[in-house]
Q: What sequence folds into this?
Protein backbone atom coordinates (compact mmCIF):
# COMPACT_ATOMS: atom_id res chain seq x y z
CA UNK A 1 0.00 0.00 0.00
CA UNK A 2 2.72 2.38 0.99
CA UNK A 3 4.37 1.53 -2.30
CA UNK A 4 1.38 2.79 -4.27
CA UNK A 5 1.35 6.09 -2.40
CA UNK A 6 5.01 6.74 -2.97
CA UNK A 7 4.85 5.88 -6.66
CA UNK A 8 2.03 8.35 -7.30
CA UNK A 9 3.99 10.96 -5.36
CA UNK A 10 7.00 10.32 -7.48
CA UNK A 11 5.25 10.48 -10.82
CA UNK A 12 4.60 14.16 -10.15
CA UNK A 13 8.27 14.80 -9.76
CA UNK A 14 9.32 13.21 -13.03
CA UNK A 15 10.71 15.80 -15.37
CA UNK A 16 9.17 13.98 -18.30
CA UNK A 17 6.83 11.33 -16.96
CA UNK A 18 7.46 8.00 -18.58
CA UNK A 19 10.82 9.00 -20.12
CA UNK A 20 13.34 6.19 -19.73
CA UNK A 21 16.72 7.03 -18.20
CA UNK A 22 18.21 3.55 -18.52
CA UNK A 23 17.03 0.55 -20.45
CA UNK A 24 18.70 -2.83 -20.67
CA UNK A 25 17.51 -5.69 -22.82
CA UNK A 26 18.97 -9.12 -22.16
CA UNK A 27 22.33 -7.53 -21.31
CA UNK A 28 25.12 -10.07 -20.88
CA UNK A 29 28.59 -9.26 -19.54
CA UNK A 30 31.44 -11.71 -19.42
CA UNK A 31 34.82 -11.37 -17.74
CA UNK A 32 37.30 -13.74 -19.36
CA UNK A 33 34.39 -15.74 -20.76
CA UNK A 34 32.88 -16.17 -17.32
CA UNK A 35 29.43 -14.59 -17.20
CA UNK A 36 29.06 -11.85 -14.62
CA UNK A 37 25.68 -10.66 -15.85
CA UNK A 38 23.40 -13.23 -17.46
CA UNK A 39 20.77 -11.42 -19.44
CA UNK A 40 19.46 -8.44 -17.49
CA UNK A 41 16.33 -6.70 -18.76
CA UNK A 42 15.09 -3.57 -17.03
CA UNK A 43 13.81 -0.06 -17.47
CA UNK A 44 14.48 2.85 -15.16
CA UNK A 45 12.28 5.91 -15.57
CA UNK A 46 13.56 9.42 -15.11
CA UNK A 47 13.01 10.61 -11.57
CA UNK A 48 13.10 7.15 -10.03
CA UNK A 49 15.34 6.20 -7.11
CA UNK A 50 16.46 2.64 -7.65
CA UNK A 51 18.44 0.44 -5.29
CA UNK A 52 20.50 -2.35 -6.80
CA UNK A 53 20.93 -5.02 -4.13
CA UNK A 54 22.57 -8.40 -3.87
CA UNK A 55 25.43 -10.26 -2.25
CA UNK A 56 29.07 -9.79 -3.16
CA UNK A 57 29.81 -11.06 -6.64
CA UNK A 58 26.14 -11.06 -7.66
CA UNK A 59 26.77 -8.61 -10.49
CA UNK A 60 25.51 -5.33 -8.97
CA UNK A 61 28.49 -3.27 -10.03
CA UNK A 62 28.66 -5.06 -13.36
CA UNK A 63 25.02 -4.16 -14.05
CA UNK A 64 25.41 -0.44 -13.38
CA UNK A 65 28.75 -0.31 -15.21
CA UNK A 66 27.08 -1.99 -18.17
CA UNK A 67 24.24 0.56 -18.05
CA UNK A 68 26.86 3.33 -18.49
CA UNK A 69 28.76 1.45 -21.18
CA UNK A 70 31.86 1.18 -18.98
CA UNK A 71 31.88 -2.58 -19.42
CA UNK A 72 31.44 -3.99 -22.92
CA UNK A 73 28.43 -6.24 -23.47
CA UNK A 74 28.82 -9.80 -24.66
CA UNK A 75 25.16 -9.72 -25.68
CA UNK A 76 21.98 -7.67 -25.50
CA UNK A 77 21.66 -3.89 -25.50
CA UNK A 78 21.65 -0.97 -23.11
CA UNK A 79 20.41 2.58 -23.63
CA UNK A 80 21.11 5.79 -21.75
CA UNK A 81 18.31 8.31 -22.22
CA UNK A 82 17.25 6.47 -25.37
CA UNK A 83 20.71 6.17 -26.94
CA UNK A 84 23.22 3.30 -26.89
CA UNK A 85 26.30 4.40 -24.86
CA UNK A 86 28.42 4.77 -28.00
CA UNK A 87 25.99 7.21 -29.55
CA UNK A 88 25.05 8.98 -26.32
CA UNK A 89 26.47 12.53 -26.29
CA UNK A 90 24.82 14.19 -23.32
CA UNK A 91 27.33 12.96 -20.72
CA UNK A 92 26.94 16.18 -18.76
CA UNK A 93 23.66 14.67 -17.50
CA UNK A 94 25.45 11.69 -15.95
CA UNK A 95 26.97 11.69 -12.48
CA UNK A 96 28.99 8.54 -11.80
CA UNK A 97 30.25 7.70 -8.32
CA UNK A 98 32.75 4.81 -8.54
CA UNK A 99 33.12 2.29 -5.77
CA UNK A 100 36.32 3.80 -4.47
CA UNK A 101 38.93 6.38 -5.23
CA UNK A 102 41.12 4.73 -7.82
CA UNK A 103 44.86 4.50 -7.58
CA UNK A 104 44.65 7.90 -9.22
CA UNK A 105 48.25 8.63 -9.19
CA UNK A 106 51.07 8.98 -6.81
CA UNK A 107 50.54 12.66 -7.51
CA UNK A 108 48.68 14.43 -4.74
CA UNK A 109 45.51 16.33 -5.52
CA UNK A 110 43.38 18.45 -3.23
CA UNK A 111 39.78 17.62 -2.47
CA UNK A 112 38.75 20.73 -4.38
CA UNK A 113 40.77 19.77 -7.44
CA UNK A 114 39.13 16.34 -7.54
CA UNK A 115 35.64 17.78 -7.11
CA UNK A 116 36.25 20.47 -9.75
CA UNK A 117 37.42 17.78 -12.18
CA UNK A 118 33.82 16.56 -12.21
CA UNK A 119 33.01 19.61 -14.33
CA UNK A 120 35.37 18.57 -17.10
CA UNK A 121 32.57 18.28 -19.65
CA UNK A 122 30.87 21.57 -18.95
CA UNK A 123 33.99 23.74 -18.63
CA UNK A 124 35.12 25.69 -21.66
CA UNK A 125 38.51 24.76 -23.03
CA UNK A 126 41.42 27.09 -22.32
CA UNK A 127 39.22 29.20 -20.07
CA UNK A 128 39.43 29.68 -16.35
CA UNK A 129 36.57 28.43 -14.20
CA UNK A 130 33.66 30.87 -14.09
CA UNK A 131 32.17 32.12 -10.85
CA UNK A 132 29.24 29.75 -11.42
CA UNK A 133 31.63 26.80 -11.82
CA UNK A 134 33.42 27.64 -8.59
CA UNK A 135 30.13 28.15 -6.81
CA UNK A 136 28.94 24.71 -7.94
CA UNK A 137 32.13 23.14 -6.58
CA UNK A 138 31.72 24.87 -3.23
CA UNK A 139 28.08 23.83 -3.11
CA UNK A 140 28.97 20.20 -3.86
CA UNK A 141 31.62 20.22 -1.12
CA UNK A 142 29.13 21.64 1.38
CA UNK A 143 26.52 19.06 0.39
CA UNK A 144 28.84 16.25 1.53
CA UNK A 145 30.12 18.21 4.54
CA UNK A 146 33.70 18.57 3.38
CA UNK A 147 33.89 22.32 2.77
CA UNK A 148 36.53 22.65 5.49
CA UNK A 149 38.75 19.98 3.91
CA UNK A 150 38.77 21.53 0.42
CA UNK A 151 42.50 22.23 0.41
CA UNK A 152 43.65 18.97 1.98
CA UNK A 153 45.18 16.24 -0.12
CA UNK A 154 42.61 13.56 -0.90
CA UNK A 155 45.10 10.95 0.26
CA UNK A 156 44.99 12.43 3.76
CA UNK A 157 41.27 11.64 4.12
CA UNK A 158 39.71 8.52 5.55
CA UNK A 159 38.01 6.01 3.26
CA UNK A 160 34.54 7.33 4.12
CA UNK A 161 35.61 10.90 3.45
CA UNK A 162 37.13 9.90 0.10
CA UNK A 163 33.78 8.33 -0.75
CA UNK A 164 32.09 11.65 -0.01
CA UNK A 165 34.60 13.45 -2.24
CA UNK A 166 33.61 11.15 -5.10
CA UNK A 167 29.94 11.97 -4.49
CA UNK A 168 30.77 15.68 -4.48
CA UNK A 169 32.66 15.25 -7.76
CA UNK A 170 29.52 13.78 -9.33
CA UNK A 171 27.42 16.64 -7.92
CA UNK A 172 29.75 19.37 -9.17
CA UNK A 173 28.58 19.26 -12.77
CA UNK A 174 24.92 19.31 -11.65
CA UNK A 175 23.86 16.23 -13.60
CA UNK A 176 20.33 14.82 -13.43
CA UNK A 177 21.11 11.12 -13.72
CA UNK A 178 23.23 9.45 -11.06
CA UNK A 179 24.86 6.05 -10.82
CA UNK A 180 26.36 5.47 -7.39
CA UNK A 181 28.34 2.28 -6.82
CA UNK A 182 28.20 1.43 -3.10
CA UNK A 183 28.40 5.00 -1.84
CA UNK A 184 27.83 3.82 1.73
CA UNK A 185 30.75 1.39 1.86
CA UNK A 186 33.02 2.34 4.73
CA UNK A 187 31.01 5.49 5.43
CA UNK A 188 30.12 6.35 9.02
CA UNK A 189 26.52 6.77 10.17
CA UNK A 190 26.58 10.58 10.07
CA UNK A 191 27.84 10.56 6.47
CA UNK A 192 25.21 7.98 5.55
CA UNK A 193 22.48 10.29 6.82
CA UNK A 194 24.11 13.20 4.98
CA UNK A 195 23.98 11.16 1.78
CA UNK A 196 20.32 10.34 2.41
CA UNK A 197 19.62 14.08 2.69
CA UNK A 198 21.58 14.76 -0.50
CA UNK A 199 19.61 12.11 -2.39
CA UNK A 200 16.34 13.53 -1.08
CA UNK A 201 17.31 16.99 -2.34
CA UNK A 202 18.43 15.66 -5.74
CA UNK A 203 15.23 13.69 -6.08
CA UNK A 204 13.18 16.79 -5.33
CA UNK A 205 14.83 18.37 -8.39
CA UNK A 206 13.68 15.39 -10.45
CA UNK A 207 16.99 13.54 -10.61
CA UNK A 208 17.19 9.85 -11.51
CA UNK A 209 19.30 7.94 -9.01
CA UNK A 210 20.54 4.37 -9.32
CA UNK A 211 22.39 3.35 -6.20
CA UNK A 212 24.20 0.06 -5.63
CA UNK A 213 23.89 -0.95 -2.00
CA UNK A 214 24.97 -3.78 0.18
CA UNK A 215 22.16 -2.93 2.57
CA UNK A 216 19.47 -0.28 2.42
CA UNK A 217 20.39 1.41 5.69
CA UNK A 218 19.23 5.01 6.06
CA UNK A 219 18.34 5.18 2.36
CA UNK A 220 15.50 2.69 2.76
CA UNK A 221 12.62 5.20 2.97
CA UNK A 222 13.82 6.95 -0.22
CA UNK A 223 13.96 3.93 -2.49
CA UNK A 224 11.14 3.65 -5.06
CA UNK A 225 12.12 0.30 -6.41
CA UNK A 226 14.74 -2.32 -5.72
CA UNK A 227 16.49 -4.54 -8.23
CA UNK A 228 17.94 -7.59 -6.54
CA UNK A 229 20.64 -9.63 -8.23
CA UNK A 230 21.93 -13.06 -7.54
CA UNK A 231 24.55 -14.91 -9.55
CA UNK A 232 24.33 -12.36 -12.34
CA UNK A 233 20.53 -12.54 -12.72
CA UNK A 234 17.82 -10.13 -11.67
CA UNK A 235 15.83 -12.16 -9.14
CA UNK A 236 13.53 -9.50 -7.75
CA UNK A 237 12.28 -6.18 -9.02
CA UNK A 238 9.80 -4.03 -7.14
CA UNK A 239 9.29 -2.82 -3.61
CA UNK A 240 12.49 -2.84 -1.59
CA UNK A 241 12.68 -6.00 0.47
CA UNK A 242 12.00 -5.16 4.10
CA UNK A 243 14.21 -6.79 6.65
CA UNK A 244 12.52 -8.59 9.52
CA UNK A 245 13.43 -10.86 12.38
CA UNK A 246 17.08 -11.66 12.54
CA UNK A 247 17.84 -9.45 9.57
CA UNK A 248 16.30 -6.37 11.15
CA UNK A 249 18.92 -6.21 13.84
CA UNK A 250 20.96 -3.03 13.49
CA UNK A 251 24.33 -3.68 11.96
CA UNK A 252 23.22 -6.96 10.49
CA UNK A 253 25.09 -7.91 7.37
CA UNK A 254 22.34 -8.35 4.82
CA UNK A 255 22.55 -10.89 2.11
CA UNK A 256 19.77 -11.13 -0.41
CA UNK A 257 20.22 -14.21 -2.48
CA UNK A 258 16.81 -14.98 -3.92
CA UNK A 259 18.60 -17.79 -5.58
CA UNK A 260 17.04 -19.96 -8.23
CA UNK A 261 13.67 -18.20 -7.98
CA UNK A 262 12.53 -16.07 -10.84
CA UNK A 263 9.65 -13.85 -9.85
CA UNK A 264 9.12 -12.38 -13.26
CA UNK A 265 8.02 -15.77 -14.56
CA UNK A 266 6.13 -16.91 -11.49
CA UNK A 267 4.03 -13.83 -10.87
CA UNK A 268 4.32 -11.04 -8.33
CA UNK A 269 6.84 -11.34 -5.54
CA UNK A 270 5.65 -12.30 -2.09
CA UNK A 271 4.97 -9.38 0.23
CA UNK A 272 7.91 -10.34 2.37
CA UNK A 273 10.77 -11.88 0.40
CA UNK A 274 12.68 -14.55 2.17
CA UNK A 275 16.17 -13.88 3.39
CA UNK A 276 19.04 -16.19 3.84
CA UNK A 277 21.39 -15.23 6.58
CA UNK A 278 24.32 -17.42 5.72
CA UNK A 279 26.88 -15.93 3.36
CA UNK A 280 27.38 -19.06 1.34
CA UNK A 281 27.95 -17.48 -2.04
CA UNK B 1 80.00 33.25 -13.62
CA UNK B 2 76.79 33.13 -15.60
CA UNK B 3 78.15 35.83 -17.89
CA UNK B 4 81.13 33.64 -18.61
CA UNK B 5 78.88 30.73 -19.49
CA UNK B 6 76.76 32.90 -21.75
CA UNK B 7 79.76 34.23 -23.65
CA UNK B 8 80.06 30.95 -25.50
CA UNK B 9 77.68 30.27 -28.34
CA UNK B 10 77.56 26.54 -27.73
CA UNK B 11 76.87 27.14 -24.04
CA UNK B 12 74.02 29.54 -24.78
CA UNK B 13 72.43 26.94 -27.03
CA UNK B 14 73.03 24.20 -24.48
CA UNK B 15 71.50 26.26 -21.67
CA UNK B 16 68.46 27.09 -23.78
CA UNK B 17 67.95 23.43 -24.70
CA UNK B 18 68.40 22.37 -21.07
CA UNK B 19 65.88 24.92 -19.79
CA UNK B 20 63.31 23.78 -22.34
CA UNK B 21 63.82 20.16 -21.35
CA UNK B 22 63.70 21.00 -17.64
CA UNK B 23 60.41 22.79 -18.31
CA UNK B 24 58.64 20.26 -20.50
CA UNK B 25 59.74 16.88 -19.12
CA UNK B 26 58.25 17.33 -15.62
CA UNK B 27 54.98 18.65 -17.10
CA UNK B 28 54.17 15.50 -19.04
CA UNK B 29 55.92 13.54 -16.28
CA UNK B 30 53.33 14.68 -13.74
CA UNK B 31 50.55 13.07 -15.79
CA UNK B 32 52.61 9.92 -16.31
CA UNK B 33 53.32 9.55 -12.59
CA UNK B 34 49.66 10.23 -11.82
CA UNK B 35 48.75 7.47 -14.26
CA UNK B 36 51.30 5.11 -12.72
CA UNK B 37 53.20 4.96 -15.98
CA UNK B 38 56.43 6.42 -14.64
CA UNK B 39 58.52 4.03 -16.69
CA UNK B 40 56.77 4.77 -19.98
CA UNK B 41 59.41 7.40 -20.75
CA UNK B 42 62.12 4.81 -20.28
CA UNK B 43 60.50 2.43 -22.74
CA UNK B 44 60.04 5.15 -25.31
CA UNK B 45 63.63 6.24 -24.80
CA UNK B 46 64.91 2.78 -25.65
CA UNK B 47 62.82 2.79 -28.81
CA UNK B 48 64.08 6.24 -29.76
CA UNK B 49 67.55 4.73 -29.94
CA UNK B 50 66.42 2.49 -32.78
CA UNK B 51 65.08 5.62 -34.43
CA UNK B 52 68.44 7.37 -34.09
CA UNK B 53 70.26 4.43 -35.65
CA UNK B 54 67.70 4.34 -38.44
CA UNK B 55 68.48 8.01 -39.11
CA UNK B 56 72.19 7.29 -39.51
CA UNK B 57 71.45 4.25 -41.67
CA UNK B 58 69.18 6.18 -44.04
CA UNK B 59 71.24 9.39 -43.86
CA UNK B 60 68.29 11.41 -42.59
CA UNK B 61 68.11 13.51 -39.45
CA UNK B 62 68.44 11.18 -36.42
CA UNK B 63 66.13 13.48 -34.43
CA UNK B 64 63.41 13.14 -37.07
CA UNK B 65 63.62 9.35 -37.30
CA UNK B 66 63.81 9.12 -33.51
CA UNK B 67 60.64 11.19 -33.34
CA UNK B 68 58.81 8.93 -35.78
CA UNK B 69 59.95 5.66 -34.20
CA UNK B 70 59.37 6.89 -30.64
CA UNK B 71 55.86 8.12 -31.46
CA UNK B 72 54.99 4.88 -33.27
CA UNK B 73 56.44 2.89 -30.37
CA UNK B 74 54.43 4.91 -27.87
CA UNK B 75 51.23 4.12 -29.79
CA UNK B 76 52.14 0.41 -29.85
CA UNK B 77 52.89 0.42 -26.10
CA UNK B 78 49.53 2.06 -25.44
CA UNK B 79 47.66 -0.46 -27.58
CA UNK B 80 49.49 -3.36 -25.92
CA UNK B 81 48.67 -1.92 -22.51
CA UNK B 82 44.95 -1.88 -23.34
CA UNK B 83 44.74 -5.20 -25.15
CA UNK B 84 47.02 -7.43 -23.09
CA UNK B 85 46.28 -6.39 -19.54
CA UNK B 86 47.66 -9.53 -18.00
CA UNK B 87 51.11 -9.46 -19.57
CA UNK B 88 51.43 -5.71 -20.01
CA UNK B 89 54.75 -5.38 -18.21
CA UNK B 90 56.29 -8.27 -20.13
CA UNK B 91 55.14 -6.74 -23.40
CA UNK B 92 56.72 -3.44 -22.35
CA UNK B 93 59.97 -5.20 -21.46
CA UNK B 94 60.05 -6.81 -24.91
CA UNK B 95 59.76 -3.37 -26.50
CA UNK B 96 62.52 -1.96 -24.27
CA UNK B 97 65.02 -4.63 -25.24
CA UNK B 98 63.90 -4.60 -28.85
CA UNK B 99 64.59 -0.87 -28.92
CA UNK B 100 68.15 -1.12 -27.60
CA UNK B 101 69.01 -4.20 -29.67
CA UNK B 102 67.53 -2.63 -32.79
CA UNK B 103 69.58 0.51 -32.22
CA UNK B 104 72.85 -1.34 -31.77
CA UNK B 105 72.17 -3.61 -34.74
CA UNK B 106 71.17 -0.84 -37.14
CA UNK B 107 74.04 1.46 -36.18
CA UNK B 108 76.47 -1.34 -37.07
CA UNK B 109 74.98 -1.44 -40.56
CA UNK B 110 75.19 2.32 -41.05
CA UNK B 111 78.28 3.45 -42.97
CA UNK B 112 80.67 5.60 -40.98
CA UNK B 113 78.81 5.14 -37.70
CA UNK B 114 79.46 2.81 -34.77
CA UNK B 115 78.40 2.26 -31.20
CA UNK B 116 80.35 5.35 -30.18
CA UNK B 117 77.97 7.36 -32.36
CA UNK B 118 75.10 6.06 -30.24
CA UNK B 119 76.82 7.04 -27.00
CA UNK B 120 76.11 10.71 -27.70
CA UNK B 121 72.40 9.81 -27.75
CA UNK B 122 72.54 7.31 -24.89
CA UNK B 123 74.05 9.79 -22.46
CA UNK B 124 73.38 13.08 -24.23
CA UNK B 125 75.86 15.55 -25.68
CA UNK B 126 74.39 18.92 -25.02
CA UNK B 127 77.57 20.77 -26.01
CA UNK B 128 77.19 19.59 -29.61
CA UNK B 129 73.68 21.09 -29.93
CA UNK B 130 73.63 23.37 -32.98
CA UNK B 131 71.31 26.22 -33.85
CA UNK B 132 68.95 23.99 -35.85
CA UNK B 133 68.69 21.60 -32.93
CA UNK B 134 67.67 24.44 -30.66
CA UNK B 135 64.92 25.50 -33.07
CA UNK B 136 63.66 21.91 -33.30
CA UNK B 137 63.73 21.49 -29.52
CA UNK B 138 61.93 24.82 -29.03
CA UNK B 139 59.30 23.92 -31.63
CA UNK B 140 58.62 20.52 -30.10
CA UNK B 141 58.49 22.02 -26.61
CA UNK B 142 55.87 24.49 -27.85
CA UNK B 143 53.85 21.58 -29.25
CA UNK B 144 53.98 19.73 -25.92
CA UNK B 145 52.95 22.86 -24.00
CA UNK B 146 50.06 23.51 -26.39
CA UNK B 147 48.81 19.92 -26.18
CA UNK B 148 48.97 19.85 -22.38
CA UNK B 149 47.27 23.23 -22.19
CA UNK B 150 44.51 22.16 -24.53
CA UNK B 151 43.82 18.72 -23.03
CA UNK B 152 44.95 19.43 -19.46
CA UNK B 153 41.61 19.00 -17.69
CA UNK B 154 40.70 15.87 -19.61
CA UNK B 155 44.12 14.36 -18.97
CA UNK B 156 43.74 15.01 -15.25
CA UNK B 157 40.44 13.11 -15.18
CA UNK B 158 41.84 10.31 -17.35
CA UNK B 159 44.97 9.85 -15.25
CA UNK B 160 42.91 9.91 -12.07
CA UNK B 161 40.48 7.18 -13.13
CA UNK B 162 39.74 5.81 -16.60
CA UNK B 163 36.23 4.66 -15.73
CA UNK B 164 35.24 8.08 -14.50
CA UNK B 165 36.72 9.58 -17.67
CA UNK B 166 34.51 7.21 -19.67
CA UNK B 167 31.46 8.09 -17.60
CA UNK B 168 32.13 11.73 -18.53
CA UNK B 169 32.04 10.68 -22.18
CA UNK B 170 35.71 11.57 -22.69
CA UNK B 171 37.52 9.90 -25.62
CA UNK B 172 39.64 7.68 -23.37
CA UNK B 173 41.55 5.93 -26.12
CA UNK B 174 42.41 9.15 -27.94
CA UNK B 175 43.53 10.86 -24.73
CA UNK B 176 45.71 7.86 -23.83
CA UNK B 177 47.39 8.17 -27.20
CA UNK B 178 47.82 11.91 -26.65
CA UNK B 179 49.74 11.19 -23.44
CA UNK B 180 51.85 8.48 -25.06
CA UNK B 181 52.74 10.53 -28.14
CA UNK B 182 53.40 13.67 -26.09
CA UNK B 183 55.74 11.60 -23.92
CA UNK B 184 57.49 10.39 -27.08
CA UNK B 185 57.98 13.95 -28.31
CA UNK B 186 59.37 14.93 -24.92
CA UNK B 187 61.80 12.01 -24.99
CA UNK B 188 63.14 13.21 -28.33
CA UNK B 189 63.48 16.77 -27.01
CA UNK B 190 65.39 15.57 -23.97
CA UNK B 191 67.47 13.03 -25.87
CA UNK B 192 70.18 15.50 -26.87
CA UNK B 193 70.45 16.98 -23.39
CA UNK B 194 70.36 14.05 -20.96
CA UNK B 195 70.40 11.06 -23.32
CA UNK B 196 67.75 8.40 -23.84
CA UNK B 197 68.87 6.40 -20.79
CA UNK B 198 68.23 9.34 -18.46
CA UNK B 199 65.24 10.97 -20.16
CA UNK B 200 62.80 9.26 -17.86
CA UNK B 201 64.66 10.53 -14.80
CA UNK B 202 63.94 14.12 -15.79
CA UNK B 203 60.25 13.26 -16.27
CA UNK B 204 59.86 11.43 -12.98
CA UNK B 205 62.39 12.62 -10.38
CA UNK B 206 61.29 16.30 -10.22
CA UNK B 207 57.68 15.12 -9.85
CA UNK B 208 58.64 12.66 -7.13
CA UNK B 209 60.43 15.48 -5.31
CA UNK B 210 57.57 17.97 -5.75
CA UNK B 211 54.90 15.60 -4.45
CA UNK B 212 56.73 15.35 -1.13
CA UNK B 213 56.09 19.03 -0.56
CA UNK B 214 52.63 19.56 -1.98
CA UNK B 215 49.03 18.54 -1.42
CA UNK B 216 47.75 19.89 -4.72
CA UNK B 217 48.14 18.67 -8.28
CA UNK B 218 48.72 22.14 -9.71
CA UNK B 219 51.34 23.01 -7.15
CA UNK B 220 53.06 19.65 -7.60
CA UNK B 221 53.25 20.33 -11.33
CA UNK B 222 54.56 23.88 -10.87
CA UNK B 223 57.14 22.78 -8.29
CA UNK B 224 58.26 19.92 -10.52
CA UNK B 225 58.87 22.36 -13.36
CA UNK B 226 60.87 24.67 -11.08
CA UNK B 227 62.94 21.72 -9.85
CA UNK B 228 63.41 20.47 -13.42
CA UNK B 229 64.62 23.82 -14.71
CA UNK B 230 66.93 24.40 -11.74
CA UNK B 231 68.39 20.90 -12.05
CA UNK B 232 68.96 21.40 -15.77
CA UNK B 233 70.71 24.75 -15.26
CA UNK B 234 72.64 23.56 -12.23
CA UNK B 235 73.70 20.33 -13.88
CA UNK B 236 74.89 22.04 -17.01
CA UNK B 237 76.91 24.65 -15.09
CA UNK B 238 78.43 21.93 -12.92
CA UNK B 239 79.33 19.96 -16.01
CA UNK B 240 81.02 23.03 -17.51
CA UNK B 241 83.10 23.87 -14.44
CA UNK B 242 83.84 20.36 -13.16
CA UNK B 243 84.12 18.78 -16.60
CA UNK B 244 81.63 15.96 -15.92
CA UNK B 245 78.85 14.53 -18.09
CA UNK B 246 76.00 17.10 -18.18
CA UNK B 247 73.16 14.55 -18.36
CA UNK B 248 74.40 12.68 -15.30
CA UNK B 249 74.98 15.93 -13.39
CA UNK B 250 71.43 17.12 -14.14
CA UNK B 251 69.87 13.85 -12.96
CA UNK B 252 72.02 13.64 -9.82
CA UNK B 253 71.07 17.19 -8.86
CA UNK B 254 67.40 16.29 -9.33
CA UNK B 255 67.91 13.24 -7.11
CA UNK B 256 69.61 15.40 -4.48
CA UNK B 257 66.60 17.72 -4.53
CA UNK B 258 64.35 14.68 -4.14
CA UNK B 259 66.28 13.55 -1.05
CA UNK B 260 65.98 16.99 0.52
CA UNK B 261 62.29 17.10 -0.38
CA UNK B 262 61.64 13.81 1.42
CA UNK B 263 63.17 15.18 4.61
CA UNK B 264 61.45 18.57 4.36
CA UNK B 265 58.16 16.87 3.46
CA UNK B 266 58.27 14.74 6.61
CA UNK B 267 58.87 17.76 8.77
CA UNK B 268 56.08 19.66 7.01
CA UNK B 269 53.59 16.85 7.46
CA UNK B 270 54.49 16.40 11.10
CA UNK B 271 53.88 20.13 11.56
CA UNK B 272 50.55 20.02 9.73
CA UNK B 273 49.34 16.98 11.59
CA UNK B 274 50.10 18.40 15.01
CA UNK B 275 46.90 19.27 16.77
CA UNK B 276 44.61 17.76 14.18
CA UNK B 277 45.16 14.04 14.21
CA UNK B 278 45.91 11.55 16.92
CA UNK B 279 49.51 10.42 17.42
CA UNK B 280 48.62 6.97 16.08
CA UNK B 281 47.28 8.35 12.83
CA UNK B 282 50.24 10.65 12.56
CA UNK B 283 52.61 7.76 12.95
CA UNK B 284 50.75 5.81 10.31
CA UNK B 285 50.92 8.73 7.90
CA UNK B 286 54.65 8.93 8.43
CA UNK B 287 55.37 5.36 7.47
CA UNK B 288 55.31 5.84 3.72
CA UNK B 289 56.69 8.75 1.82
CA UNK B 290 53.16 9.47 0.63
CA UNK B 291 50.60 10.62 3.13
CA UNK B 292 47.86 8.02 3.14
CA UNK B 293 45.44 7.34 5.90
CA UNK B 294 43.39 4.20 5.61
CA UNK B 295 45.24 1.32 4.13
CA UNK B 296 43.04 -0.29 1.55
CA UNK B 297 41.12 2.86 0.77
CA UNK B 298 43.30 3.45 -2.25
CA UNK B 299 43.30 0.50 -4.59
CA UNK B 300 46.40 -0.27 -6.50
A:
Amino acid sequence: MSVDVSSTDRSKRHSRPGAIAFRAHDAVVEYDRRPALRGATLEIETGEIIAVLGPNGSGKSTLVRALLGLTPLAGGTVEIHGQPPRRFRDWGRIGYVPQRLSAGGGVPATVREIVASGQVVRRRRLRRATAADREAVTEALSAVGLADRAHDSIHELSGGQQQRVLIARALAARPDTFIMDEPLAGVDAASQRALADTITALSARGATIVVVLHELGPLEPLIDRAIVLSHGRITHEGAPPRPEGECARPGHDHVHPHAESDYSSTGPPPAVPTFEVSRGD
Amino acid sequence: MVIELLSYDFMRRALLAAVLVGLVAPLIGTFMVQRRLALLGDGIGHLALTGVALGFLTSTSPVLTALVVAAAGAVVIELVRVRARTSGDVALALLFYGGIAGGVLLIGLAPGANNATLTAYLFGSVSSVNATDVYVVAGLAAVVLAVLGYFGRELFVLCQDEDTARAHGLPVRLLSLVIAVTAAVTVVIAMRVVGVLLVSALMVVPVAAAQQLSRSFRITMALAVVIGVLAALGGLSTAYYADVAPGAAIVLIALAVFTCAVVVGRVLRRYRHTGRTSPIEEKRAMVGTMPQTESGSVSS
In short: Residues 116 and 207 of chain B are 32 Å apart (CA to CA). The two ends of chain B are 48 Å apart (CA to CA).
